[in-house]
Input
Amino acid sequence: MQILNGKATAQAIIDLLKIEVAQLMSRGAPVPHLAAILVGTNGASETYVASKVKACNEVGFKSTLIRMEEDISELKLLELVRELNNDPDVDGILVQLPLPAHISSEEIINTIDAGKDVDGFHPVNVGRMVQGQPTFVPATPYGIMLMLEHYKIDTASKHAVVIGRSNIVGRPMSILLSAATNPGNCTVTICHSGTKNLKEICQTADIIVAALGRPGFIKEDMVKEGAVVIDVGITRVTDATKKSGYRISGDVDYASVAHKTSYITPVPGGVGPMTIAALMKNTFKACAMKHYD
Ligand code: NAD
Output
């Protein structure tokens, strides 16, 4: 069993990006600039945005964090997005999800300029991804693909089972793994809350991507000997022994599953840092595209 070290792999990507930023600047381009909008004070969202801003600082990108009150109207938020669309100094825009219930995420995402949509959620970018055209690939599945590539994991003709069908993780993951690419070229089964016999399906998987948000859901008896297990889950679980009062749990029961796998991602330190690194790559691309394509 080999642990897929997301922290180290992400660092390698960040280090390479630092060099690319320096090269871009030596050709007269401005530093890539990511604008992040955070609505409200959700604890998990605060943490995610903070790590994105921190990564920008590390790579040498400019970042702007725009905080908005929880009760901001959809109209006001749309106005802000349009302002950023029109700001030539801004290369990438991300709106941290989830948004408060009174705001339509769909409406907001659809309003982001597709050329600045570094989260890759705009329908134009999703369409491009489905067709295998150059685009911004959503950061979490992109990060997982980069990890598979980094560790040279052979995915061709393998049976990949993706659990979760969200637009952010599960669905794009299933598309990327089924594409005629390397990594990729898998036979993909996508499972969700309506799936029957999930355990039996998982038992036939060469690769499992667990993205359902149910702590410790994947148990030892669901995993085939030698499978690759990618744990996307991040759930805060109450833990009185921690200063914060909680710990982070993945979707895989790591303690019982790890010994059966050929490769497995830990939580934390697996998919999380790769997601951030992938977002940085998308932001760099948004800037480079604007100035040199
Ligand atoms: P989501 O709630 O939008 O989607 C969850 C999916 O899981 C749904 O499609 C649902 O059908 C499926 N599901 C739920 N219960 C199920 C069950 N019992 N059996 C089979 N399928 C089931 O969540 P999401 O945004 O896709 O995120 C999934 C998890 O990944 C969460 O824990 C989230 O915090 C985490 N996440 C991590 C990163 C990262 O960087 N590591 C990034 C994004 C999301």
About this structure: The pocket of nicotinamide-adenine-dinucleotide is lined by residues 140, 163-166, 168-170, 191-193, 195, 198, 211-214, 232-235, 271-272, 275 (CB under 6 Å). The first helix runs from residue 6 to 26.
